[in-house]
């Protein structure tokens, strides 16, 4: 199973890209900043769509699209979402495996304390995909931003694994590059996950990340 995550910076003008590789070859799409409103109806063939749209202002928004031939359900989130972060979570059931997918967007840095209890309640395994806007040497950046030390401590204490290398995922209009889109998984899944950044941004300022999930090739129960 292949999963693609991408801060698309607006989805409505980028549907053409979804019909060609790597998007057409990915099983699951994880998008941040779709800029879709609650009034935008979209249909993606052979996909079940889960969305988190802002109701009071433009911008932001999250989308997860899963294959329509597998079982997936959205997880209720009893957290007041603000301008500081957005979160969308589903649970996937496929073959002998079930796991959570969590999609997060935090435009000004991400305070893990806000949703720590929710993530702990899911009970691993999970894969977290997000544009966190955090800077830390753990993923190759040369300074530490607000909230990032707490975020790194949470990864370590929660027995999670950061799948990124140090390849940047974001490039500003001035040409500055940074790794701010992260992929994190439960340690029980890490041996079955391989993530890499694509070298094309597809008209966004973020490059997509592909995560290859090989555990579904096994006939044994992994966890």
Automatic annotation (TrEMBL):
This is Endonuclease/exonuclease/phosphatase domain-containing protein. InterPro entries: Endo/exonu/phosph_ase_sf (IPR036691), Endo/exonuclease/phosphatase (IPR005135). One of its GO terms (molecular function) is catalytic activity. It comes from the Eukaryota. Residues 100-210 form the Endonuclease/exonuclease/phosphatase domain. It comes from Trichonephila clavipes (Golden silk orbweaver).
